[in-house]
Amino acid sequence: MKLRIGMIAGMAVMLSALFAAPMPNTKEAELRAGMRKLWEDHITYTRNYIISALGNLPDADAVAARLMKNQEDIGNAVKPYYGDPAGAKLTALLKDHISIAAEVVKAAKAGDNAQVDAAQKKWSANGKEIAAFLSGANPAWPRSELESMLQKHLDLTTGEVVARLKQDWEADIRSYDNGHAHMLMFADTLTDGIAKQFPAKFK
């Protein structure tokens, strides 16, 4: 009898805590899911392009076009918060990011190490430009933190290219898995910053 009373009391405490907990913010949850989908597409179609370009597959151009469309989608996603010019600027920076990635893949495939190094320097500079633009728009996105996160994205993507050229499939998959998780974290960082900067939009 005492055991049953104790169980009922425990359940009552749990239910009380459940109903007392704040309800999840639906608008913020929608933004988080949408942002994750966009950056998941970014990492996935980047991988598809690497596979197609290195493998001389006939879909390489189609995948590249879809990847460029993803950069437009990301730019459009920030327009409700930062305006059309800012969204267009982000899209332009991200399209440069993809174009330089294609240069890295092409140079690596040709075994031109000097060109790989040159393209990677451009890639890193572009990442810093993206970080500067984003941090300038939102104080919740520290520039140094974004630079570090974007550089890690570049390093992990490069890891995929190098591993595939070496036919080190385990390393290739590991680089993608790590890059995928990292990209979702980056997406969440953007969502958290937007929610913090525009709390009225999430009431």
Give the helix proportion (percent range): over 70%
Give average pLDDT, whole number. Answer: 91
Main sheet? none
- Discrete helix count: 7
Which value, in Å, is the CA radius of gyration? 21 Å
Strand content: under 5%
Written overview of the protein:
There is one protein chain. It is built from 7 helices and no strands. It is elongated. Helix content is about 85%, strand content about 0%. It has one domain. The model is unreliable at about 15-20 (pLDDT under 50).
Task: Give a summary of the structure in a few sentences.
With 203 residues, the protein is an all-alpha fold. It has helices spanning 2-20, 26-54, 60-82, 84-110, 113-137, 143-165, 169-197.
Could you list some keywords that capture this structure?
single chain; 203 residues; mainly alpha; 7 helices; elongated
Topology:
Layout: H1 2-20, H2 26-54, H3 60-82, H4 84-110, H5 113-137, H6 143-165, H7 169-197
Helix pairs in contact: 2-3, 2-4, 2-6, 2-7, 3-4, 4-5, 4-6, 5-6, 6-7
